[in-house]
Amino acid sequence: MSTVNDTNFNSAVFLLTGIPGKEDAYLWISILFCLIYAILIAGNSVILIITKINPSLHEPMYIFLSMLAITDLGISIATVPTILGIYLFNSREISLDACFAQLFFIHSLQLIESSVLLLMAFDRFVAICNPLRYASILTLPRIAKMGLVCVLRGVAIIVPLPLLLKRYQYCRANVLSHSYCLHQEVMKMACSDITVNSIYGLSASLLTLGLDSLLIFFSYVMIFKTVLSVASKVESLTALKTCISHLCIVLLFYIPEISLSVIHRFGKGSSHLLQFVLGYINLLVPPLMNPIVYSMKSKHLRTRIIRLFIKVSSSPGSLTGDMGDEKPGPQPPIPS
């Protein structure tokens, strides 16, 4: 009898949630999200174009920034269909398979982004703490292998999650509290024992996001220790300025991500509005702010972005020219 009931009540779809009580304003909200996505995609695309056409930016720091931009574009592409579908077409339904696919891409790309942030911290660590070996340690072939390991790690760790979810029966209301699918929330919709998913998901988060954030913290402890040992205050400030952009991006990524994960797992009485706001901050703010933060903090990058727009406005048919003729600058950009 239990099997029959499970079969009868197993739903073929999940229901996504927009902003409760604001249905009349969905058109204006959709315009806001379209604007955010347009800025997000444009900003990260400009980073990729600038890095590609400027030989002087073919350096580890900017290559890692390009990896971050690709990851951010992937996360935005994974979430755009369901978020805009709700606010533009009031389409709340998503099939189980589509939901599992979406949560796979969201979580795997977030793990890849965490890995890239760790690589960027390692780049700053080597540049400041061991500048004489910087060029020999961070070679282009080695950077390519690091990027491949980041992708393989993210995919390998997340693949079991949707496979485990497909084994369950879903006989509840299946109304999700976000405009997209997250593993922490989808597994709670199952009417089966989700102990395996819960333990594996928590372990995966601790061994990836938790470990990455801990290693980034230790790398900055070593960086600050090295910087404080530098005699000149000017040199100390110059060295620290190269880390400000990365620190801002790390905080923008880990604080909402960890907060949302904790609330979903342990905050049973938490406000739905808090979950909702953190959910959008978690997925939209880091990809939106990453190119802006680096453009503001890196004069080297900002100058080339300005040159790109001047070049495009003066001759739209050409993106190359003087910008691509510059010789690479000295590495690392840290005073010895």
TrEMBL record:
Locate the G-protein coupled receptors family 1 profile domain: which residues? 43-294
Keyword Cell membrane assigned to the entry: answer is yes
**GO cellular component term of the entry, any:** plasma membrane
Tell where it localizes: Cell membrane; Membrane
Give this protein's Gene Ontology molecular function annotations. G protein-coupled receptor activity; olfactory receptor activity
Superkingdom of source: Eukaryota
Gene3D superfamilies for this protein: Rhodopsin 7-helix transmembrane proteins (1.20.1070.10)
Name of the protein this chain belongs to: Olfactory receptor
